[in-house]
Amino acid sequence: MKKGIELSLNFLVTIIIALVIFGFGVRFIYNLASEATELESMTTDELDKKIGQLLCDSTDRVCIGIDKKTIQKGKFDVFGIKVININPGSDFEVQITPTGHVKDNGPIVQVEPGSIKLNYRQAFFIDRNEEESLGVGVGVFKDAESGTYILDVNVEQVTSTGAVPYAGLHKLYVEVP
């Protein structure tokens, strides 16, 4: 009788340990999935903090660290842009527009609406000899066409006479497999 009770207790302990390990596994998968969806719902300020330091030449007034990324359909990723102000403190505006789509090394065609979604801060102030880092969130819709999407990045300095281009045109490239 004593051996039968010991065997039953060992079986119960084994079942309890298995349930605890299973619970930790479910929690791990849940946390992993919630972090993936959290990236898509980030605010522009949170995107700016996530990009970290970019590698730029000291002479670059506008720097894009990595200008080409592969993003799967239905996924989201972040580009980083750094703007260095060499003039007296002023406001800046950033405009990012999808300008073309290339499929299978063919001609550049117009981007279909509803292919990609952009999330970034458009206006900000920078003091003289200071810099500002921006995060640009790019989401690719599930029904987007495969190929390379070309995004034009225009940074303008706002002056009393209006906005003037600051450091020329830059490009971002999004590869969608």
Query: What is the CATH first-level class name of the largest domain?
Result: Mainly Beta
Secondary structural class: alpha+beta
Task: Give the domain tally.
Answer: 2
Output the helix-strand order: HHEEEEEEEEEE
Number of helices: 2
Termini separation: 65 Å
Task: Give the low-confidence spans.
Answer: none
CATH overall fold name of the largest domain = Immunoglobulin-like
Assigned CATH superfamily of the largest domain: Immunoglobulins
Q: Major beta sheet, specifics?
A: 6 strands, mixed
Query: What is the number of beta strands?
Result: 10
Give the C-alpha Rg. Answer: 25 Å
Mean pLDDT: 84
CATH architecture descriptor name of the largest domain: Sandwich
Secondary structure: helix percent: 25-40%
Please tell me what the overall shape is. elongated
Q: Hey, roughly how much beta strand do the residues contain?
A: 35-45%
